[in-house]
Design a protein that fits this description.
The protein is of the alpha/beta class and 419 residues long. It has 14 helices and 14 strands. The radius of gyration is 22 Å and the shape is globular. 49% of the residues are buried.
Length: 419
């Protein structure tokens, strides 16, 4: 008879060098990664594990240690200046961050480290080796091949990124992918080891993100039935990789009397002002000032309210390891139009919970505003189709939860520790 599985609580250290779990998603360099780490850490702490998240101090007012809930704390390390840094500047503080992390582990040991993004992994690797504990690596995004052209306004990669990601694919004890698409990228682009890559699907908070059932929603339906403009929403950091410019051009390609209201939710990263300026200029040039709203970054409860009161969500990102916001729309009963790329193929079931825009044989339809405009008009013009897709999307989301995601993550941790 085999031995009983180990069920003792674990001491888990998450490493987030360049962005804090305290940051509001859609601000600074905070995005889906912040949501994922915070949700999984919360679930692990609720399950009785001791979790600490190590991040860089970006504000002198931040405490050295913040207790978020029983069993979950954030520790701020003084690596580099206590201010916001452009994403590429973090490479210069990785070594110092790793030294401070090493010191923390000497006084407060953990059973394993889980690094989020390559900055964190390279910084944490020496500290994990010195402490004699495993290093688990999550990428959240992986550098495009070196020959890939930069889009307009897109910042170049940090000089060491591709080499760092390749090193972690081989030197980390285990790599966590959030989708089968990301797993394939690790294996093919980074030459990863198939035996050391595991998929841990993301979850979604189906209580926070739920279909609209308030009086305001009934008023919205009455407004639409009497000829009011429907609303399309797009959410994320205002960065060229997220494709906000394509969404504006797509809505502009629709006849003015049939255009939806376009709601843009998110804020730029520290070095993203030029791109945001270009988005506002594009809206003005297209004559869409009265039908476009830039809401900035919203707290999670406000974001959930905005999503469920929209008619459709647009996710035009050029690359997504999964596309968490698409799953949040699904939980809200809102169909999604997304680019047929990466993990979005798993977040959106084409023809059932939304529409995937795929490249065709003649040109990249994924970048053609007219193709997006046709899909937008198709969904907005067919209330029965929207309702059917929205119901299927909600059912799709109900099969996922952060507790299930954390349970799978815990299985992976215990498998690794048992080696």
């Amino acid at each position: 008879m085999g031995s009983a599985p180990n069920t003792s609580p674990l001491r888990i250290g998450f490493v987030m060098l360049h962005t804090s779990p305290l940051d509001v998603p859609g601000t600074k360099d905070a995005g889906g990664m912040n949501v994922v780490v915070r949700a999984q850490a919360d679930a692990l702490a609720r399950a009785g594990h001791d979790v600490v998240i190590f991040t860089r101090r970006s504000d002198p007012a931040l405490p050295q240690r913040a207790e978020l809930r029983p069993g979950l704390a954030v520790v701020h390390l003084d690596a580099g200046p206590a201010r916001l840094l452009a994403k590429g500047e973090h490479e210069a503080v990785m070594e110092r961050f790793g030294e401070l992390l090493d010191a923390e582990l000497q006084s407060s040991p953990v059973d394993l480290l889980h690094a989020e993004h390559w900055f964190s992994g390279i910084a944490a690797l020496p500290a994990a080796r010195r402490a004699g504990i495993p290093l688990v690596q999550s990428y959240h995004s992986i550098a495009a091949p070196p020959e890939s052209p930069l889009g307009e306004g897109e910042r170049p990669e940090s000089p060491g990124r591709l080499a760092g990601e390749r090193r972690l694919a081989h030197d980390a004890d285990l790599v966590i992918a959030v989708s089968e698409a990301e797993r394939r990228t690790v294996l093919e682009r980074l030459d990863g080891d198939e035996d050391r890559v595991r998929v841990v699907p993301l979850g979604v908070d189906t209580e926070l993100f739920h279909p609209c059932a308030t009086r305001e929603c009934a008023e919205d339906r009455d407004w639409l039935s009497s000829g009011g403009r429907p609303e399309a929403i797009v959410v994320g950091r205002l960065h060229p990789l997220k494709g906000f410019d394509l969404v504006i051009d797509a809505v502009a390609a629709i006849e003015p009397d049939r255009r939806p209201m376009l709601r843009v939710v998110g804020a730029p990263p520290p070095d993203g002002d030029d791109y945001v300026r270009s988005l506002h200029e594009s809206v003005a040039q297209h004559g869409m000032l009265r039908t476009t709203a830039f809401d900035g970054a919203l707290r999670r409860s406000d974001l959930a309210e905005r999503i469920r009161r929209a008619c459709i969500m647009l996710v035009p990102s050029h690359s997504e390891t999964f596309g968490l916001v698409a799953l949040e729309a699904a939980a809200s009963g809102i169909p999604v139009i997304a680019r047929d790329a990466g993990g979005l193929r798993e977040a959106v079931i084409d023809g059932e919970t939304g529409i995937l825009i795929s490249p065709d044989s003649d040109a990249d339809a994924g970048d053609d505003p007219r193709v997006w405009a046709e899909a937008i008009e198709r969904l907005l013009g067919d209330a029965e189709l929207r309702e059917r897709m929205g119901a299927a999307a909600r059912e799709h989301a109900l099969q996922r939860s952060w507790d299930v995601s954390a349970e799978r993550l815990l299985e992976v941790y215990r498998e690794l520790l048992a080696r």
